[in-house]
């Protein structure tokens, strides 16, 4: 089991524990806002399970039907997570509306808020772990799961503050208003996850900082070549795919041009960690000059 898979397994366990704690808070109080918070945690369990399955699938090596590997499974998973978050948001809106029409009294608010606070603290710690490790391991599924948990932390904190106001003001309708605000935040979070993860599915170029590393590696290791042009990049999970045209003198031997290609591939792999590099070697009459490197 890889490190990312272990983290994803831990996320599933934490999500189940947090769900149980939040349901206990709702059971004690009968609060619509706390029920909405617990409902979102059901989605947390589903997203953690989805992330675990996607990470395990993405770790499979390339095969005949998937020669470029299975890394995009993580982006597909992240989009699915975003969709589940949207479902949770609409479900919370429904509960908020029902509570607004028929307000319910809140029982044992202090105990319920204390229980909810424990769950929120646990989520805050684990969301930080997921986001940090997801970015370190370039795992879209872990980052998406972490951001969803962080959104849960924000909404839970808002619920705690809001219910405290309900207790202080004795305005029961505020309970449903808080739940509606939670739903709006959840919907925004879900749309953000979908928008960010769709970039990987649509072969979005590597981030700006990676492009800078790629250009630096090319300029420093292309000695003997005349020009690099047509640089294209995309990313899938931990792997960055790079292809470009390498212009060399027309009289250069195949063996010599191959040495340059090997040097460039080694430099790019060292700079990026995991890279699949495709180089098309061309003679000097194919030089483009404008917008090219090394020209």
TrEMBL record:
The keyword Transit peptide does not apply. Residues 11-201 form the Cation efflux protein transmembrane domain. This is Cation diffusion facilitator family transporter. It comes from Candidatus Rhodoblastus alkanivorans. Belongs to the cation diffusion facilitator (CDF) transporter (TC 2.A.4) family. The chain crosses the membrane at residues 7-26, 32-55, 75-93, 108-129, 149-171. It is a multi-pass membrane protein. Residues 207-283 form the Cation efflux protein cytoplasmic domain.
